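Hi R.,

Here are the chain sequences for the assembly we discussed:
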Amino acid sequence: MSATTLVGLDVGSTSIRAVEASISKDRPTINNFGQVFLPPDAVVNGVVKDDRAVTAALRHLWTAHTFSTKNVALGVTHQQVIVREIDLPKVPSKDLRHALPFLVRDVLPLPVEQALLDFYPLPTAGKSETTHGLLVAVPKEPVIDTVRAVENAGLHVESVDLACFAALRASAHLAHDTEALLDIGANGTNIVIHADGTPKVVRTVPRGGAEITKMLATRLGLTNSEAETVKCRVGLRGDENAESAAVADEALRPLVTEIRSSFNYYSQSHPGKRVRRLALVGGAALLPGLAEKLTQDLGVPAFLSDPLQRVHDVRKGGRHDALGRFRSSAAVSIGLTLGAA
Ligand SMILES: Nc1ncnc2c1ncn2[C@@H]1O[C@H](COP(=O)(O)OP(=O)(O)OP(=O)(O)O)[C@@H](O)[C@H]1O
Ligand SMILES: [Mg+2]
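And here is the predicted structure of the full complex:
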C-alpha cells in the first residue's frame, strides 16, 4: 500500500503547530514541521475566540512552510471533555453511531444534542452481555468553530481527535502499569492517567505556564517578556535565583494540587492501583527543575517524555531542526499523525 500524506494540526493558545507525515502501516515519517504564533486570546483553552486571526495564521503557516498537502488531522481540546469507561448493551458496530446518543443520554452531564460522541470498545476477559469501552464526549460547538476556522484557510479537515489522546499516542511509556501523562501548555493542562495506553482518567484543567509568567511579572515588577525570560532560564532553581524560583514555586502550587487530586481520584476509583510515574510534555514541561519538583511533591518519578519516540524523523539534528527543539510543544501534532495509519 502506498503512503498517504497528511498534517497533524494542533491549534494551541500560544501557537499553531503543524507536522506533515507520510502515513504507512509502519511508523509515520515526518517530512515537514512548521509553527506560527497566535495573538493573545485568539484561542483560549481550546476555544477559538478570534477565527480570523486563526485563519490568517494558518494561511501564513502554509505559505511559509510549503506543506505538500492541505489534508489535516485536527486536535481538539476543551475543559468539558468527558472520557469515561462505560458498559453498553451489545449493538452491531454499523448501528452504534445512531444508537450512541440514546444509549448515553442519561450518563452525560451535558445535553446529548450539544455533544460530539465517540465510543472505543476495550478488550474484556470472558463473554459478556454488554460491551465495555470508553465513551468520549466533547461540546460540539467549539469543535465546529475550530473546523470552520481551519477550512476557511483552504484546508481540509480529514479527521478530528482529542488532543490528549494524540499526546498519549506520541508520548506515553507503555508498560503493564499505570502512568500519568501531562501536557502542560500555556493556559491549559491535560492530565491523562492510563494503563498501558488505555486512558482511565482524563481531565483538562485551566492552568499552565502563563500563570507562572504572570505572577513573576507582578511580584518582581517585570514586563511580560522579561518575566518569560526569567521563567525559562531560572524556573524552579533556587540556586540560580532564590527570589524568582520561590515565586515560580508558588505559582505552580495550584497545578500540583490538581495533579495530586487526579492521582487520588484514580486510586479511589481503581482500588489497589496507583500512578507509578509521571511523563511530561507541552511547552511548560520545560520549566527548569519541574521534573525534580513533581517527583518530590508527588512521590513518583517524573520525567520529560520524548514525543518523537514513535516516528521516523529523517531530517533530525542540526541547527535547522525546529521540530527537535520544539518537540515538547509539538506532542499533539506529532501524535495526530500516529492516529492516522
Ligand atoms: N524553556 C521553557 N521553560 C519554561 N516554560 C516554557 C519553556 N518553553 C516554553 N515554555 C512555556 O510553555 C507554554 C507554552 O506551551 P505550549 O506551546 O505547549 O502551549 P499551547 O499548546 O500553545 O497552549 P495551550 O495548550 O494552553 O492551549 C508557555 O507558557 C511558555 O512560557
Ligand atoms: Mg497545548
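The chain has a mean pLDDT of 94. The pocket of magnesium ion (ligand 2) is lined by residues 12, 183, 185, 282 (CB under 6 Å).

Let me know if anything looks off.

Best,
T.
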